[in-house]
Amino acid sequence: MSRGYRCWLVAALVTFGGCQKIAPSDEHAAQARWTIPGVVRTAVTEEPNTLVRMFSNQSSADDVTALLYEPFFRYDDRERPVPALATTFPTIANGLISKDGLRVTFPLRAGVRWSDGAPVTSADVIFTWHAIVDGKNPVVYTADYDQIKAIVAEGPHRVTFVMKRPFSPVVYLFSEGTFSPLPAHLLRGYASLNNISYDANPVGDGPFVLAQWMHGSRLVFKPNPLYWRGPPHVREIDMEVIPDPTTQLAELRTHEIDLVDGVMKNLVPQLHGIPGIWVQTQLQANYRHLDFNLRSPLLRDANVRRAIARAVDVRKIIADVYGGLGVQAATDIPPFSWAANDLQPIRYDPAEAGRLLAASRWLPGADGIRMKQGLRLALSISSTTDNRPNADAEEIVADELRDVGIDVTIKNYAGGVLFSEQGPLYRGVYDMAWIVNTEGVDPDDLAIWGCAFFPPHGANTNFYCNQKVDAYLHDAQISYDQQRRKSDYRNAWRIMLDEAPALMIYWDRIVVAGNANLRHFRPSPVITDYWNAWEWEI
Hints:
With about 550 residues, this protein is an alpha+beta fold. About 25% of the residues lie in helices and about 20% in strands. Helix 13 (about 465-480) runs antiparallel to helix 14. The chain is globular.
């Protein structure tokens, strides 16, 4: 399948076709009716809690950061790094990574300025790194940045990271999806950067500046006249906070907004018949998965996990619940990644699921639910509330598992509860979870599966540990050779596909709908679709 987006029309079922639904002769009339020339009105589901990325894990924070700040690299519609504040992507071949892997150099672009006119220099990078790792700021994570021993300024426009050990993901730091450099000349005097006035009214070096923030309602961005690429083509981006996906679609239908960046799957058929919009899809690095908590006494048994993985008809769920808008996943490496491999998904085989359970002496009781030594094979499944497709998928999973003798109870939580540090995932007080992860550009996943990364020391909320897997994933971290790393990930996942600490479901095809007069919007498979907002026109 193409790694670029496809334009498509939606009928009773999803079919692919042309991108614009209005004929060229109608474009001028359409623009006169509902387009505000130069103004892009977008919708976000959640309001950012801050405009400083190091204090937020929200997807809206990535969108806002792409507008306000210039990262080292942006990522285009084919996941390729686009030089921004950094001019050259470091490799061993071009000499920017030392042969021992301990020094990684980034040439910085001369002439980039903060929106107050001050130059952006290596001092800003060094200041930001210290703010991340010095323990004075409640940043959402320090992982990867804490592998840097020092950052050395080699003049105002060149920095070298001195590493504690070879660490391949370092080339992606300070780029989209991580923490962009902040202005040292404005922030150096603060003991902590959290909850200061700058967090809500920042000075950035990106293509836009914040003009207005009406909390709970909208954020308005205007062009940054000092942007190094030149001023953006639109005169305003109006980001409306609309938590309800149905309301977003209604406002698109009435042309009160120009862009819905991620239409909920069950609403996609309703796009059919809306005049004057285009619809695009993009395969993204968002993977849905069914997680197993290995702290659960029942799920410590690998045969129980293997059975569950074989009892769930993943293709049926993708087709019936998510409108076919997903590609079945085998591992947590996107199919468009350089690290992708040929490993196949766990096959659907409920008969084999029954044999695996019987092999572990889980035998059907009077009501069909399996028992072992007086213990009933009963589990819960959890996801976020107020998400109809997820609820439908959970019902299917519960029905399919009951068919093989596993009783399942649905126990959902608000997203802020499910994913909080004190929530059921990080505390390990759940059985199964139906959730989505968003992958970055680098395939490093040691913090997800590694033995040393159980919460609160990492994000291994499956509480899975296999020393052989650890060794492969650790080796992939310390090598800058992509082929060696690719082999490491393949070897690790051969083990995990057998032991089934989780069942990978699908890679998401995001659906984007926009005003037919909005041009040059190119969804990215990673991080944010706002990566090229300076090129948008309307």
